[in-house]
# Entry
Amino acid sequence: MKFRIKLETEFGWGETRSHEICTVERQTLDASSEDLGLCMAEAKSLLKEVQCALLQDQIEEIREIERVCRFCGTYLPVHDRRQRRIDTLFGRVTVDVPRVRMCMCGLPGFPTLRVARSPLTRLLPDNATPELRRLQAELGARHSFREAARLLNELTPCAKQNHVTIRNRLATIADDLSSSELIVATEANQRSESPEITVFLDSAYVRSRPEYQRRNFEVIVGSI
Ligand SMILES: [Zn+2]
# Structure
């Protein structure tokens, strides 16, 4: 028995496009419990393919919309094309993103100035989706960095994680939070009461030698 999974995109301008995502084959004669439904590896691969097709088409539509100046309606030329890597919870996707020349209709004094911009710079400044960033930070805060990386690698098709990936993400998010206006305002109110404190915690299991004592213990290291 065969299942063919397809994705159909309908662009805002009416064009449709079909993507062949994957084919799943199953035994029906002498089927076992493992033949029922999707297994984890297939689900990860399926999600990755769907994410890839979806993002490629989404970027294409955003790119076309960004090429029309919202003030004068001019269809703007492409300055150059660059490949951008987007890290998502469902895989790392490389997309072709053009940089569009900015319209000078609002700047009559600078008619020869040519500045290009990419739509992804505004949408994803650090090339990672908010959902992936949130899960990396949440798992990194609840578990050791290695355990957080292991959980993400085990359960999602995201690009391979390790303890350094998680630690760096958590540090970036902490920096983003501390630089946000809300925190700055709160800090300004509290500055006279308490100094700024940064805390990092990580932990690891140390396993005993089996012939000696059958005990493991967890080491938690903190830096303030
Ligand atoms: Zn314009």
